[in-house]
From TrEMBL:
GO molecular function: metal ion binding; Rho-dependent protein serine/threonine kinase activity
Native organism: Tachysurus vachellii
Coiled coil: none
Any Pfam family the entry gives: PH_MRCK
PROSITE patterns: PH_DOMAIN (PS50003), ZF_DAG_PE_2 (PS50081)
GO terms under biological process: actomyosin structure organization; cortical actin cytoskeleton organization; embryonic morphogenesis; mitotic cytokinesis; regulation of cell junction assembly; Rho protein signal transduction
Assigned GO CC terms: centrosome; cytoplasm
UniProt keyword Metal-binding, yes or no: yes
Domain Phorbol-ester/DAG-type: 168-223
Transmembrane segments: none
InterPro entries given in the database record: C1-like_sf (IPR046349), MRCK/ROCK_PH (IPR057529), PH-like_dom_sf (IPR011993), PH_domain (IPR001849), PKC_DAG/PE (IPR002219), Rho-assoc_Ser/Thr_Kinase (IPR050839)
Protein name as annotated: Rho-associated protein kinase 2
Region: Disordered, residue numbers: 257-296
Domain PH: 58-257
Length: 296
């Protein structure tokens, strides 16, 4: 019975992933149809054509990216995937043929994205230094992932066993051999041969001298990250060039959902305000009527 339920669960996930892929294809066809209609309208009236948003006119974001594969304890290799970004999903395919067959390897829900950014040396200390400018990172909620197989697992953030907690930060001890400055005192934080002990927060990625922590100096600002990193999953992606990396990061950042904190509380508390006003007004009216009755 349990084996049957497990098989049904796997089948349900695969069918949902195939449906997500079909939805992406339908979305692309609708976009092509709209662009054809717009082109026909522009050709019909060249002088007074409507203006359209430049973001909508951009081609759909898709192409080859590489995901890390752990081969040994010192280095990890990369495995190419064809990635398609729709309005709601990020779909990963093993090949373009799988894309044509609506057979994605992994699907990420855009509504569950936390952050997209370029990486630092601390994030990918196992990677080749020449690859770092081409690597970027996606942080997303665990429930936002649908996956067929588990052979390629995202690397855990930081890959350290312990963290130094301070003002909401979770600092990772590290060393910098390339130019960077301390964000607490603005002094150099690097040296080619003997860099000073440094810390980098795995949440907000602020960098500072370790001496500031050891001397208990109040120069480190509190952590600004408002999501729980322990429940977030980390996915590293390698682009073909630094320009491609910048293109992917800039386009994906615009898709991160904006959910300002405290919106629900304000909506819940607002209906109470008119009630209080109405009550105070009614009390004033009754007091005026009593005073009028006494004078008469």
């Amino acid at each position: 019975m349990q084996a049957q339920l497990a098989d049904e669960s796997v089948m349900r996930v695969e069918l949902q992933m195939a449906l997500d892929s079909k939805d992406s294809d339908i979305e692309q066809l609708r976009s092509l149809l709209n662009s054809i209609n717009v082109h026909s309208l522009e050709s019909a009236s060249m002088s007074s054509g409507p203006e359209f948003d430049t973001d909508e006119s951009l081609p759909r974001l898709e192409g080859w990216l590489s995901l890390p594969v752990r081969n040994n304890t010192k280095r990890f290799g990369w495995e190419r995937k064809y990635v398609v970004v729709s309005s709601k999903k990020i779909l990963f395919y093993n090949s373009e043929q799988d894309k044509e067959l609506s057979n994605p390897y992994m699907v990420l829900d855009i509504d569950k994205l936390f952050h997209v950014r370029s990486v630092t040396q601390t994030d990918v200390y196992r990677a080749d230094a020449k690859e770092i400018p081409r690597i970027f990172q996606i942080l997303y909620a665990n429930e936002g992932e649908s996956k067929k197989e588990q052979e390629v697992e995202p690397l855990p953030i930081g890959e350290k066993s312990s963290y130094i907690c301070h003002k909401g930060h979770e600092f990772i001890p590290t060393l910098y051999h390339f130019p960077t400055n301390c964000e607490a005192c603005t002094k150099p934080l690097w040296n080619m041969f003997k860099p000073p002990p440094a810390l980098e927060c795995r949440r907000c990625h602020i960098k500072c001298h370790k001496d500031h922590m050891d001397k208990k100096e109040e120069v480190i600002a509190p952590c600004k990250v408002n999501y729980d990193v322990s429940t977030a999953k980390n996915l590293l992606l390698l682009a073909s060039s630094q320009e491609e990396q910048q293109k992917w990061v800039s386009r994906l950042v615009k898709k991160i959902p904006k959910k300002p904190p405290g919106t629900e509380c304000s909506h819940r508390s607002s209906p109470r305000i008119p009630v209080k006003v109405q009550t105070s007004q009614s009390m004033r009216r009754t007091s005026r009527q009593l005073q009028a009755g006494k004078t008469s």
